[in-house]
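Hi R.,

Here's the chain you asked about this morning:
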Amino acid sequence: MARERRSGTKKAETHERIVREAAKALRRDGYAGASVGEVMQAAGLTHGGFYAHFPSREAMLAEGLDAAAAESLESLFGAAARKAAAEDRDPFATLVESYLSDRHAAATETGCTIAALGSETRRQSPEIRRVATERIEEFVKMLERARGARRGQALADLSTMVGALVISRIVDDPALAERVRKAAASAILED
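And the predicted structure, written out as tokens:
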């Protein structure tokens, strides 16, 4: 019995390791670049062990996306709350500034999954789109609470933040990228 528990625990730990590697691969390489073989190799496993953990590549990608998005939200909101408290600043303003910072713009492998994968996600399976929708809904609710705003305003804030981050990552002019993010922050915070 103890051996079965350890085996179950080991399997759960291995599964989580695969999910973490899938989350990294998604952020770094997108959906098409997150191959089963590379994810399993990064997790220190063989390709053959994949089906002991997932029924399909889509299932692995959905779990990887969910883990990456959860981590992004926790990191973003947690860091902003800690910084706001330490500096006695408005938590919402700190959140917006943190999301639109140079650091977050450069953090493609650890930052917002919506900005990293958004345009690709519409072409994915219903399972992956459902996960994305759930995490976007969670982000909107967190913005509603952080700002004390209605849903419409939170949706506009999210759209402005994500759009500015995407554009700032696309352009090859660092000064323009910074101006885009600053303009978005001003538009949100002056509203």
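The chain is about 80% helix and 0% strand.

Let me know if you need anything else.
M.
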